Amino acid sequence: MLVRQSSPSQHTTVTIAGVPVGGPSMVVIAGPCAAESETQLRTVAECLTCLDIRLLRAGVYKPRTSPYSFQGLQDEGLQLLHDIKRAYGLGIVSEVMSVAHLERACEVFDCFQVGSRNMQNFELLKALGQVRKPVLLKRGLAATIEELLGAAEYILAGGNQQVILCERGIRSFDPATRNVLDLGAVALLKRLTHLPVIVDPSHATGRRELVIPAARAAVAVGADGLIVECHPIPQQSVSDAAQALSLDELEQLVRETARVAQAVGRQLPCPVERAA
């Protein structure tokens, strides 16, 4: 199937570990930027369970600007995610950086994330076209819409129809925010393509206090879901601490976006009260 839709009514729903993305219900994918420890992951997993969030994001292979920054727990992180998955029944969404990661990650990940730096890693995209698991494809740092759709086409052309597009902000001249969240692109992608489109307000803004407002706007413009970063103690996160929500803030995000979703004819489960 080509990435562009043949009619305005054509929509594809992609299912991650039993969770539909692209249907009437919106999806939230949440978790730490990087898996750090069993305690950290269990604390987050318990929170997600209470909030009825069924998909956990946590990086074990981390592409970093500096080679001296934390690169992820690698195989140790895979084992931690495997254990959390079994203990809490959560689907795992995590990034692969190269073809070499696929075989090991395939046993644990329910959805392969392609980060912005790898959006045009064509050998990786070709390999993901042969994998029969969903792929979350993030827009590149300065990629055009056509370039994003071309990257998605590589995966579809390989036979894997389970592609989710992700707007995560594009690079700008203005350092006030980490990136510029292109909400117009979300609305456009929903018209151009049949694929689900989600938004990453964490990387788009890079600032904790802006994540929830950006998430509300993403829901209002028609996004099929959100992928957000959270941490039990955000200030102690080894990666992207400035944009990570606390677990209380994650609950606030779910509550506020649920109201917006209802206003635009979508559904998002409203969380139960978490124990103090």
Written account of the structure:
The structure is a single chain. With 276 residues, the protein is α/β, with parallel strands linked by helices. 35% of the residues lie in helices and 14% in strands. It is built from nine helices and ten strands. The chain has helices at 38-50, 75-88, 102-105, 122-128, 145-157, 183-192, 201-205, 208-221, 247-263; strands spanning 14-16, 19-21, 27-31, 55-57, 91-95, 111-114, 135-138, 163-167, 197-199, 225-229. The chain has an eight-stranded parallel β-barrel with strand order 3-4-5-6-7-8-9-10, surrounded by four helices. A two-stranded antiparallel sheet has the order 1-2. Helix 8 runs parallel beside helix 9. It is globular. The N and C termini lie far apart (48 Å).
Keywords:
single chain, 276 residues, two-stranded antiparallel ribbon, disordered C terminus, 35% helix, eight-stranded parallel β-barrel, 10 strands, alpha/beta
Summarize the structure in short:
Helix content is 35%, strand content 14%. It has 276 residues and is of the alpha/beta class.
What structural category arises from helix and sheet content? alpha/beta
Question: Would you report the number of β strands?
Answer: 10
Average pLDDT across residues?
92
Radius of gyration: 17 Å
| Quaternary structure type | single chain
| Helix percentage range | 25-40%
Side-by-side strand order of the widest sheet:
3-4-5-6-7-8-9-10
- One letter per element, helices H and strands E, the order comes to EEEHEHEHEHEHEHEHHEH
Estimate the strand proportion: 5-15%
Q: Which residues form runs of ≥5 with pLDDT under 50?
A: 272-276
Shape: globular
Give the termini separation: 48 Å
> Helix count?
9
Most strands sheet: 8 strands, parallel, barrel
